[in-house]
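Researcher: Please translate sequence to structure tokens.
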Amino acid sequence: MNESLQAALARLRSSRTTLLAILPVVVAIAVLALVMAFRPGGGQFVGSWQVHDPVSGATTTVRIVRTGGGFELRVPTAQVAPVPYLFRNGKLVPAPGYESACVLALVGGKLVMTPPEAPAIKPTPRAVPAATLSPAATPTSQPSSTATPDPNAQQDAQITQGVHTIQAAVQSWAADHGDVFPTADLVVSTGPFSAYVAAVGSWPTDPVSGQPMKPGSGAGDYTYEQLDGGQSFRLTGYGVDGTPLVTVP
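Model: Translation complete:
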């Protein structure tokens, strides 16, 4: 009886010793599991990678290490400062202040660097000046101008026509008299010359006096000169204002 009790006590002491021996190991495993459970993700990025930099176009070796607050991208072959990263939605994104760095992602077991998206620029609305409406100008009615016939112009035209009638008679006279033009005393409304005027029309009327045109230098008159012994002539008619109006030929 005493031997059985002693044996049982011995086995109990042995089990207690074994339990005390493995207890720290169990506690350590539990603590490690607890730490791993609450540790942030992204551990799959830790290590060395061959990547193609889309900005520089070069392929280089980078190393990603975990830090207390996230991760760091380091380039062992270049003298550049490490770039801090945070794990977000399965990717490593640049930490605040480093937004110009590439986003890191794992695609097919390879580390891929993607340039950051440029922030959308919102257009600044342009200030449009308020339109100022000016009152429309009211058109000023202008009195309709009615052309009034110039009596002097009409009379001058009649005088000019009379001179051309006398000219035609003078030239007809020369054709019948050996190409010699008549003398001044013949070019009047009476006598043989008047027949040559009648052949082309009628003796012209002075519109100023209402009488047949006569030699003179007054308004509605005419002057005739035989030149070069009858080889030429000059005939001038005077307008309503008493100044020379037309000279032929």
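Researcher: Any highlights?
Model: The chain has three helices and ten strands.
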